[in-house]
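User: Please fill in residues for this 257-position structure.
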């Protein structure tokens, strides 16, 4: 029966002096939500780790330069899409810095794929003599982004700013290798890239162990820039390790994760 019908019966019963009948109303179904929880780091860290792994293997010469196009399906077909998905996931959870980071890093992998494809197929009409300069622009611009990212990441456990620092190092080495043409510096850039991949897998393992309810291993390290101006009862830690302020709770055990 409709809501309008129920209201009409109650008004009619009130006019006749009778008690209005009470019609039971079925409980409304709970509203559906897009995201109720989860940790976007589980997807984002894995995508970032695989991307740096394949790029590092290419830089140190694991496979020949003629097979460099094999990097594109991984960095664009998986890493870029997975990181973009992690960005939206973080945004729906209200994690703005995480969303901005994953979104921008997804742009890094997409732009890397476009750079490789564009240079190979001459989409951008760049002369062969100017190709090194185009690669230098790519590395330097992205290096500047990660330098800026290092500052807010000091509020995360030590492994995260360490990852950013290693990424800055590898981009600087890659730009130097292109500028100088030194194969030794290119090998060093590849080694730094593989180091970043190892650290990303390290952080991903900690997140995945936490997701399945096991001890948080391996450790991520201490927060390098913990706030010093908050009282002890106002410091709590989020799932990613960042400190935030919160009102004191009467139960000392409450709020601990």
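Assistant: Residues filled in for all 257 positions:
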């Amino acid at each position: 029966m409709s809501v309008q019908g129920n209201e009409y019966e109650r008004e009619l019963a009130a006019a006749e002096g009778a008690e209005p009948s009470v019609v039971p109303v079925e409980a409304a179904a709970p509203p559906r939500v897009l995201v109720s929880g989860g940790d976007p780091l589980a997807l984002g860290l894995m995508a970032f780790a695989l991307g740096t792994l394949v790029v590092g293997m290419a830089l140190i010469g694991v496979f020949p330069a003629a097979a460099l196009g094999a990097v594109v399906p991984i960095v664009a077909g998986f890493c870029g899409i997975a990181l973009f998905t992690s960005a939206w996931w973080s945004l729906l959870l209200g994690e703005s810095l995480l969303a901005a980071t994953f979104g921008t890093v997804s742009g890094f992998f997409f732009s890397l794929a476009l750079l490789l494809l564009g240079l190979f197929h001459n989409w951008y009409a760049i002369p062969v003599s100017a190709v090194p300069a185009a690669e230098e622009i790519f590395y330097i611009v992205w290096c500047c982004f990660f330098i800026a990212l290092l500052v807010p990441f000091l509020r995360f456990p030590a492994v995260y700013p360490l990852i950013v620092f290693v990424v800055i190092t590898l981009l600087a080495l890659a730009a130097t290798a292109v500028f100088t043409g030194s194969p030794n510096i290119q090998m060093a850039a590849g080694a730094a890239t593989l180091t970043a991949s190892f650290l990303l897998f390290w952080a991903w393992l900690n997140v995945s162990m936490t997701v399945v309810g096991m001890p948080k291993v391996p450790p991520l390290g201490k927060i390098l820039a913990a706030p010093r101006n908050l009282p002890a009862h106002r410091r709590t830690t989020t799932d990613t390790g960042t400190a935030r302020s919160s009102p004191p709770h009467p139960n000392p055990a409450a709020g601990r994760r």
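For context: The chain has two domains: 41-211, 226-257.
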